Amino acid sequence: MDGVEPVLYPLLRKDLVVQGPRYAIQIGEKIIDYNEEFRLFLSTRNPNPFIPPDASSIVTEVNFTTTGSGLRGQLLALTIQHEKPNLEEQKTKLLQQEEDKKIQLAKLEESLLETLATSQGNILENKDLIESLNQTKASSALIQESLAESHRLQSSLDQERDAYLPLAESASKMYFIISDLSKINNMYRFSLAAFLRLFQRALQSEQDSSNTEERIKLLIDALKHTVYEYVCRCLFKADQLMFALHFVRGMHPELFQENEWETFTGVIIGDTIRKSDSQRSARDQIPSWIEQERAWAVATLKTSLPGLYQTLCLEDEGLWHTFSQSSVCEQEFPSTIVKRISLFQQVLVVQAVRPDRLQSAMALFACKTLGKFIFHQGASTQQLNTVVILVIHFIL
């Protein structure tokens, strides 16, 4: 449900009617017996349900939505339990000891106040009271020192735990990436429990390394491979290429410069050109070798990404002759240009000039980026080829 029905207000307010030995409540036009152990739970999939002001005071709202920081902490705890269980045990013991010390300190303060309140006569002449105060002060100082030492040890342990934080952050990012798929199709819903099983499976993979930093990189690559393969098997074929690009975009935003993704998805559609120039003037702005029906797309690319357009040197028809005539143009970029633009910028050029090869260009971009990042940089050629074959199998 997305709200609180007014008919439930008497029940939520507990407007009980006493009828002899029993309690009753009016729901609508009926009076129903009320059990004191009755509890009502209302649930909704809406993360921001509307609760009227008159109902907010009688309803307790509990948000079970998974957050990035909460999931990151949970994944970090799972990682530490698997990689360094002794570290997690020490952390737990320190927290328990710290709580015990705080309880002892609170009891000493309470005892001190009670002693002062019950003392009779001149406090300065009461030797037992003064001795008790001195003992309390000494015990309090020892507890404070123990708490300070506990904080120091916790800081040291936290530094060791934070070494595994990049793995937890990457895993948390992956979960929200696959959660976004439900916006495309309601069938694409992945539970947190299923993702945690994938995460634990990646932790148990054989990724031996004496260096902690190297070990984390290997675990991140193993998790990417596991999650990507698992999700692709659940998707319709028409959505597999979309997920490949979405996965690359979510995990590696550094591959996309400003306004590039917006231009690709159509968020930036060249409103400036539309308002100031006609279709004929757009035709005049681009080289003559580009087909007329692509004039608007290339003009939009020029306006949205002027730096990229200048780098392409599209005015040089001889430079782009092979590209314009090739049946696999995504693989036939001019050698002088391909060194100066990124992989995704190549996709943008194909989208603007040769949209007939856009799907192949997108698949090639996904294969290259996923093959580069799913395995570590030192992976063998055979491993990389295996990933490329896997990606092509899932995408095309």
Automatic annotation (TrEMBL):
Domain Dynein heavy chain ATP-binding dynein motor region residues, every copy: 4-142
Q: Which GO terms describe its molecular function?
A: dynein intermediate chain binding; dynein light intermediate chain binding
Query: GO biological process annotations for this chain's record?
Result: microtubule-based movement
Q: Per its UniProt record, what Pfam families does this chain match?
A: AAA_9 (PF12781)
Gene3D superfamilies, per this entry?
1.10.8.1220, 6.10.140.1060, P-loop containing nucleotide triphosphate hydrolases
| Source organism superkingdom | Eukaryota
Q: Where is the signal peptide?
A: none
Q: Identify one Gene Ontology CC term for this UniProt entry.
A: axonemal dynein complex
The residue stretches assigned to a coiled coil in this entry are none
Q: What is this protein called?
A: Dynein heavy chain ATP-binding dynein motor region domain-containing protein
Q: Which organism is it from?
A: Anas platyrhynchos platyrhynchos (Northern mallard)
